[in-house]
Amino acid sequence: MTNVEQPLPRAYDLIVYGASGFTGRLVAEHLLGTYGAIAEIRWAMASRSDGRSVSVSVKGDKGPGYGSTSKMIAEGGICLARDVSHDAVGGGFWTTASALGELLISRLQAKAGLTFMLQSG
């Protein structure tokens, strides 16, 4: 008979990282509106605790609608597949910035014609 290790019980089914950002806030609003605070899905929000806010401008060599967006999606997938340690990211829900961060920014600058300029922060 083989011993099968049982997973540890989790406090939450889903943690929204980056909840103070635009996308994270939308995800949290959807979860609250759809499932409520007490439901069959146990969820929580996580964000930076240092209170910093950063403003960045992004410019691409194609239009922001389809051209640059499609490049960002493609390079995001390649970054996830090749550049990010799956051990470091682990499971759960991650926003693109939380999971890929500087690795994706470097890839987008090198391969997709995007530039990022810090405005404040």
List the keywords.
2 domains; alpha+beta; single chain; 121 residues; 16% strand; two-stranded antiparallel sheet; two-stranded parallel sheet; 4 strands
How many helix segments? 4
Radius of gyration: 18 Å
What is the general shape?
A: globular
Distance between the termini: 58 Å
Helix content: 40-55%
What structural class do you assign from the helix and strand content?
Answer: alpha+beta
Proportion of residues in extended strands:
15-25%
Multimeric state: single chain
Strand order of the largest sheet: 1-2
Series of H and E elements: EHEEHHHE
Query: Poorly predicted ranges (pLDDT <50, ≥5 residues)?
Result: none
User: Count of DSSP E strands?
Assistant: 4
Describe the structure.
With 121 residues, the chain is α+β, with helices and mostly antiparallel strands. It has two domains: 11-50, no CATH class; 53-121, no CATH class. The protein is 42% helix and 16% strand. The protein is built from four helices and four strands, in the order E-H-E-E-H-H-H-E. It has helices at 22-35, 67-83, 86-89, 96-111, and strands at residues 14-17, 43-46, 55-59, 115-120. The strands form two sheets. Strands 1-2 form a two-stranded parallel ribbon. Strands 3-4 form a two-stranded antiparallel sheet. Helix 1 links the parallel strand 1 (14-17) and strand 2 (43-46). Helix 2 (67-83) packs across helix 4. It is globular, with a radius of gyration of 18 Å. The termini are far apart.
